[in-house]
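ligand=dioxothiomolybdenum(VI) ion
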Amino acid sequence: MTSALGGTISRKDGHLKVTGQARYAADHVLSQVAHAVTIESTIAKGRIKKIDSSLAERAPGFLAILHRDNIAKLRRPDDDFVSASKAGEARVVFEDDRVHYVGQYIAVVVAETLEQARYAAECVRVEYDEEVPLIETDEAMSTAFSPREFFGEKLFASRGRAAEAYAHAAVTVDAKYTTPIEHHNPMEPSASIAEWHGDELTLYETTQWVAGARNTVAQTLCMRPEKIHIVSPFIGGGFGCKGFVWGHSILTALAARHVGRPVKLNLTRKQMFSACGHRSETRQRVRLGATREGRLVSIEHNSLVQTSPVDDFIEPCGATTRFMYSCPNLTVRHRAVRVNIATPTAMRAPGENTGLFALESALDELAHALGIDPVELRIRNHAGTNEHVRKPWSSNYLKECYAVGAERFGWRKRDARPMSMRDGNLLVGWGMASSTYPGFRSPGAAKVRILRDGSVEIVSATQDMGGGTYTTLAQVVSDVTGVPLDRIRPALGDSTLPPAPVSGGSMTTASVLPAAKRAALDALAKLVALAASGPGSPLSGTSASDLQAGNGRVYRTGTGPESGVRYEDVLAQANSVAVEGEAFTTPGAEREQYAFQSWGAQFVEVKIDPAIARLRVTRVVSVFDVGKIINFKTARSQGYSGVIMGIGMALMEHTMYDRRDGSIVTSNLADYAVPVNADIPSIDIHFIDKPDPVIDPDGIGARGLGEITVTGVAPAIANAVYHATGKRVRDLPITPDALI
Ligand code: MOS
């Protein structure tokens, strides 16, 4: 049988999804469920003076109102990513009477029906003592600080003497770039349903991290984690906004305990703009110095981002710059200000995506200043090792990404002069940029059960937010056992299963597949032992060491599997229901020896109608080196989604706030534009598909993917716009007014 790894395989859960049988958090039907509606602050800064709920309490169907005066004290969970407890916002919900941003939870109303809850919530009067908020970065400069760390990693980096080298460089670029606040806007808004059984809580959740949600909710409610059961079998996209626990989950649990019934809280699209994070605005300055031959001698990358008054999340724009290119002199600095806007969070490639917009735009500016082809400039500055941590790459096919991408795109035919290429009246621009994202891996566990009917279960407390985890887990187990994919049942998204990391940081594949593989091997070893020892087994008496399992059978080593005994017969003969294998895998010493990073190249064509400044992305070629590809279909799908998100970032997405009062002006999908089908061109996603030789000792070799696919798209588009028009747009999104 050929390997189930590396195929082009449809999703295991595809049929469930298209037939509406996949239950997302809000789809779970619980009897006697009551409905919660939250009340949020309408001011951006101040104090809550009074909450008057007298009218609401007489509203039809009213069950309860909870606010800071009538709930039990909550605890701030440890802000500790490593021990899997991290809230989206450090300040716990209803902590005090302070208001820090528009949309902050003030109260939650519970009623019999959703409509009644909404009506009752409308009846609540909140009085505030209002203060003048800081909404824009310029106003908030007095709050500026230098953050030390991002998830335990130091943010400041320096080697050589960057300023001196810049001052003496033959050719320089010094430019400022900005990116706006953006929101994840997954298709599925966040939702929770809470149900208590005595002192035990079940939460149906929208989460990218069931283990993290369990621990974080437990700590917040001062409960033991074993008393909490998180259920999240399907997630309609997350992109980071469902990575950590946000206030609505806590409020749902509190409300259900209070009314003694299950309670459901489903956020509206509008609430998604304040309730679960966003990508910070960024202001970045990049200074590059180079020799006439295009060798970088100096890189300086300073960024200024926003965070909230009640958390320290930082968009680490310069993280990638530290090692992206070979350069002896480098300084990377981060600063942040506190504005009265809800807390930002990780959004698909936090730091890499925004940082590469600046760096890869600056590199394009340097290429034009030098008269060197942008691809050639990147090759000349290729980093053969990670110069920041001074380690070799585990694997690096970035140059191949450039070469394959250039070939597939037809880059050779590019006339380098701006405004030189045309299609009738349209200006044609060709631009490119590099992509990158770390090859993270975390501890992960899985169980595999081979059942008496010959089917196989694979279970793990990982989750599938749309990337294809159900399918890739089944593929690994099929590969090891030889049992066909349709006889393998994955179950995940449940905190009672063997623990796995957050489905964030693009690490699910690299973390969980090795555990699944070992668990499957463990199950087979137990089956072999059963065959060797079972009284009714035709292989009985054979030493287990002379037996092996595969292709659905246990057989004598040296003979073919066809001559062996089928798994189901081994179990039947032993009168056994199932064998169960279990494994826990964790990264090891290879993490000390190597730097793990995925790579890519984005090539983009735009066409611009100069008369009306209409810009269309007409072609994208993306090539990625992410190690071994487990499933080309789901991998390519990740590629499409990243490129589409990158087009949104480059041309449309921009959350706007009223600078006077901090209200969100674009809190819906009409005013917050995202790409639709008509905006999306032909996208060619290609993978180098070379296994990473060291990322896992189990030989899977996948670094995982997801976030890398969005990186480099926006600068490639901006670079194409420059090539088409001669206009360098350094502020995203590139809307028509920038091109007129
Ligand atoms: Mo991601 S932003 O690590 O979900």
